[in-house]
Design brief:
The chain is an all-alpha fold and about 200 residues long. Helix content is about 65%, strand content about 0%.
């Protein structure tokens, strides 16, 4: 196992600890989601800090596993390229923009939790910097280059966001907002850094 850079390591620890706290407080009369999840503007429960706190909360073990595994796989590489301070700023900006996108485009479908928006920003930046990296996706037995696989995931999110299917509890617009923020940031930063990574 490769050594984890400090920001990715601390994000993994923070997300797991907060999820364990969610599980504990779920059995009480004051679930953490009431204060930390991202509530719709019209719900009466929205607070400005939820734009940050929601990205450290998760809805299930599968949810947190998938997000943290993706952070480990792709975020660590970006932090090694950019350095810890830039990666931290990048991650937080993507997560906050994802929250704003969910607030204004996601409708009134209850609260949202998860690092998925920030993670989609990480994936967008990884794809920009390493487009020809072969990726193995679940249930697909052949490698697909990042420049095809990740935009494919984003296209599925766009379809899900537009179709707004009943019972779909995925924050598609948060994913797309995070991805857009990640792409714009890496595009701007790469204008002053002519290194090529592919």
């Amino acid at each position: 196992m490769r050594a984890l850079p400090p920001i990715v390591k601390n994000l993994l620890i923070a997300n797991v600890l907060i999820y364990l706290a969610q599980l504990y407080f779920a059995r009480t009369e004051t679930p953490l989601e009431l204060y930390g999840a991202l509530w719709p503007l019209a719900s009466g429960n929205f607070k400005i800090w939820q734009l940050v706190t929601h990205m450290f909360m998760h809805g299930s073990w599968f949810h947190i596993f998938f997000n943290m595994f993706t952070l480990y796989m792709f975020g660590a590489q970006l932090e090694q390229v950019w350095g810890s301070k830039r990666f931290f700023n990048f991650y937080m900006i993507c997560g906050i923009v994802a929250g704003v996108a969910q607030l204004f485009l996601g409708g009134d479908n209850g609260y949202a939790v998860g690092a998925s928006g920030a993670i989609m920003g990480v994936l967008a930046a990884f794809t920009y910097l390493f487009p020809n990296t072969p990726l193995y996706l679940m249930f697909i037995p052949i490698p697909i280059k990042a420049k095809y696989a990740i935009p494919g995931l984003m296209a599925l999110d766009l379809f899900g966001g537009i179709s707004n299917t009943a019972g779909d509890n995925i924050a598609h617009w948060a994913h797309l907002g995070g991805a857009a923020a990640g792409f714009i940031l890496v595009l701007l930063w790469n204008k002053t850094n002519r290194n090529t990574f592919y």
